[in-house]
């Protein structure tokens, strides 16, 4: 058997309960030789035991942390151990399709790309609805009336939320400006030029930061739609899922990430790009977790008052989870209590339930 050219790095995205489906999908649909490193950040005992058993039987490397990990922190634990030409980041809530890896490597070989992403779909129906088919992400400068210059972000997803069948004829290999960490193949040598992933991004904008960093050193990015994977979002199923999900998308982690992005790239903070994202703090928690939960309650469906009360209660829980993590783990993913308190000081946006529909 030929030597593997790729090391697959799996890490938790926002929950643990899809771990088995994800791992089985990769082993069932990957024929080309590969090495695998699994970074397990604080999964509950049953998942931890499952991963230990699978690591022993399949021979992959398991890195275990007892604390929840921010995405880039998890990936950085694996990067220094990569010995292969390529590494492939994939989240633990993704299903892959036959020949997915072969086609990504083929694209990188033929184009010389530093990063290649597949056609990434979303939903419980596999390969049906597009989440990402490449996109645009760069900084541009806009002159202002006072003679100063505003630095802004241009970001665009191609074919987002479109049925694959509807745009199939328009999908073809193309150079693009960003990929997402749901699944991306990376030429390992790029890290010698840009360093490890920036752990200042706790929950958001880490993919934009990485892709712009690659472009800044002359690297290229491609989307290869002949390779298809599907990100499968679901309601968190247990306390370990819920607590990790709420921390991962906490107001504190999102706000910290956005501020870090603005400072690092010297971007205009009052730009609509940031205003939109500040206004949507908590959006993922409310739409992916809280609203489905409320609608399962008696009289919960379309009950705006009940949803308002649930939002207020969830913010209290979210603040507690964030501060508890900061107390327990003194590292760079912890945020000082005074900063956390200031972020949760107002609930004006969270009163506007109808604006979130």
Structure, explained:
The protein is an alpha/beta fold. The chain contains 14 helices and twelve strands. It has helices at 19-28, 45-58, 71-78, 100-111, 164-167, 190-194, 206-216, 239-248, 251-264, 272-279, 283-295, 304-328, 337-343, 348-351; strands spanning 6-11, 35-41, 61-65, 86-91, 94-96, 115-122, 130-132, 135-143, 149-157, 174-176, 183-187, 221-231. Strands 1, 2, 3, 4, 5, 6, 7, 10, 11 and 12 form a ten-stranded mixed beta sheet that branches. Strands 8-9 form a two-stranded antiparallel ribbon. Strand 8 (135-143) and strand 9 (149-157) form a beta hairpin. Helix 11 (283-295) crosses helix 12. This is Glycosyltransferase. Residues 9-191 form the Glycosyltransferase 2-like domain. It comes from Myxacorys almedinensis A.
């Amino acid at each position: 058997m030929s030597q593997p050219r790729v090391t697959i790095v799996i890490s938790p995205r926002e929950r643990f309960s899809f771990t088995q489906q994800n791992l089985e999908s990769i082993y069932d649909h990957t024929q080309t030789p590969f090495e695998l490193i699994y970074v397990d950040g604080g999964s509950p005992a049953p998942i931890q035991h499952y991963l230990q058993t699978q690591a022993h039987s399949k021979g992959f490397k398991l890195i275990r942390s007892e604390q929840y990990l921010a995405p880039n922190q998890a990936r950085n634990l694996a990067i220094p151990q990569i010995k292969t030409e390529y590494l492939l980041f994939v989240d633990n809530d993704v299903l892959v399709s036959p020949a997915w890896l072969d086609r990504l490597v083929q694209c990188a070989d033929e184009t010389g790309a530093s990063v290649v992403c597949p056609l990434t779909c979303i939903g419980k129906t596999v390969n049906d609805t597009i989440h990402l088919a490449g996109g645009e992400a760069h900084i541009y400068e806009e002159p202002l009336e006072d003679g100063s210059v505003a630095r802004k972000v241009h970001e665009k997803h191609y074919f987002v939320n479109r049925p694959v069948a509807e745009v199939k004829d328009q999908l073809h290999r193309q150079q693009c400006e960003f990929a997402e960490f749901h699944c991306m193949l990376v030429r390992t040598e790029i890290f010698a030029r840009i360093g490890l992933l920036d752990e200042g991004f706790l929950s958001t904008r880490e993919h934009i930061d990485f892709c712009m960093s690659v472009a800044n050193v002359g690297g290229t990015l491609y989307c290869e739609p002949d390779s298809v994977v599907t990100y499968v979002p679901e309601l968190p199923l247990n306390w370990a899922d819920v607590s990790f999900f709420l921390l991962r998308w906490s107001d504190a982690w999102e706000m910290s990430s956005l501020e870090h992005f603005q400072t690092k790239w010297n971007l205009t903070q009052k730009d609509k790009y940031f205003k939109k994202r500040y206004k949507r703090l908590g959006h993922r928690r409310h739409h992916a977790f809280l609203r489905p939960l409320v609608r399962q309650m008696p009289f919960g469906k379309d009950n705006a008052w009940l949803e308002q009360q649930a939002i207020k209660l969830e913010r209290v829980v979210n603040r507690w989870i964030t501060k508890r993590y900061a107390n327990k783990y003194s590292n760079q993913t912890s945020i000082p209590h005074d900063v956390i308190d200031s972020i949760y000081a107002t609930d004006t946006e969270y009163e506007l339930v109808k604006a979130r529909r």
